[in-house]
Amino acid sequence: MINKVVKNAQEAVHDIPDNAVLMLGGFGLCGIPENCISALLKKGVKGLTCISNNAGVDDFGIGLMLKTRQVRKMISSYVGENAEFERQLLSGELEVELIPQGTLAERIRAGGAGIPAFFTPAGVGTEVAEGKETRVFDGKTYLMESWLKADFAIVKAWKGDTAGNLIYKGTARNFNPMMATAGKITIAEVEELVPLGSLDPNEIHTPGIYVQRIFQGNAYEKRIEQRTVTRI
Amino acid sequence: MLDKNGIAKRIAQEVRDGMYINLGIGIPTLVANYIPEGINVVLQSENGLLGIGPFPKEEEVDADLINAGKQTVTMRPGSALFSSAESFAMIRGGHVHLTILGAMEVSEQGDIANWKIPGKMVKGMGGAMDLVASAENIIVAMQHSSKDGQSKLLKKCSLPITGIKCVKKIVSDLAVLEVMPQGGFKLLERAPGVSVDQIKNATEGSLLVEGEIPEMKL
């Protein structure tokens, strides 16, 4: 087996250049690659295009990279929890492309699967459809959307092995599996890096073929945006 | 007039046994609290969960288990977890039977606006455009009028729309209405203590009133 293990986040992101196109997994703050985001902050790369469902919050996740003005463009579906984001967007400092969430997920999936375009009903008749080809199938109108790919896809998994096979936990899976397939180089940070043979092949979510670099992250904060509990 | 819980309670009456349901953020999330005993449904969360359970006890809180509103949740027995691509395949593929979501405006053609206020609010559409474009049955939970008294049930939406000709039913603080295939809001029920005239005055789009309009039973 090819050994894909790197020492840490710094080593994993060492060659990410200015103006790179990145994919970052996660839904809200759930399943985000915390270690790599910290390493990108330290490295100080600029002019990044970040494809990620959300933009973090003001003081965590991608929000940290917005504060340091490392992000030139965000491609997301929902950015509601970030005041700095909204400020940069309304003032025109940050370029933003908002995409329906299912379309975003499928465009990334398509990018990894070698499908250049597909038709979806989402956004028909709205400003999302402006300038896009439409076609009618079985009497209903659909919109053509194209694939998305990245220079580097950065994902977070629960467990991974040295061959890059990944297993996610709970709803921290979200965008991570598709993003893993759509990066020229895919970096996986995992909570637990295990030896070859210790993961059950029946349980693998992301086969190692998609992953070029893997490391065991540390000090996961896993911040919760809306801690909601039953009061009984 | 209904409060938020009243709206949720009335919508819960639309739920049928065996349905897979996607609940939006806000009032729609409350609907889960009022689904009658004996009606078994599965709640879908767009971030990759079928089988949303109640909010966790303090000691059960798991950062890796949240709903679309980023709230911590639990899983019911028989739950399934999956990716965002799979989640929206379920939604676009017509496997989710009922979608309940909030709206800022609805037009008499069934267009819905709920994602953007130009120059003011740019949070993004999230999964709303995929949901409204795909679901066969969409019920909207909303306030009939804005805080300054402007109707939100309009001839034509003034805000950027989320989807066209998709809303089938509306439950507001004042009434239950059906969007007619040829256009127009058909009044089905009045909220307790609300008159037909009050509903007429609060509806800018064309309102169809046929015969005696019953009061909601909650």
TrEMBL record, chain A:
Family as reported in the entry's similarity comment: Belongs to the 3-oxoacid CoA-transferase subunit A family.
Entry-linked InterPro entries: 3-oxoacid_CoA-transf_A, CoA_trans_fam_I, CoA_transf_BS, NagB/RpiA_transferase-like
Keywords: Transferase
GO molecular function, one term: transferase activity
The keyword Transferase is assigned to this record: yes
Species in which this protein is naturally found: Shiella aurantiaca
Name of this chain's protein: CoA transferase subunit A
Keyword Transferase in annotation: yes
Pfam annotation, one family: CoA_trans
UniProtKB/TrEMBL annotation, chain B:
Organism: Shiella aurantiaca
Signal peptide start and end residues: none
The entry's keywords: Transferase
Coiled-coil stretches: none
Name of the protein in question: 3-oxoacid CoA-transferase subunit B
Family: Belongs to the 3-oxoacid CoA-transferase subunit B family.
Record-linked Pfam families: CoA_trans
Family matches, as InterPro entries: 3-oxoacid_CoA-transf_B (IPR012791), CoA_trans_fam_I (IPR004165), CoA_transf_AS (IPR004164), NagB/RpiA_transferase-like (IPR037171)
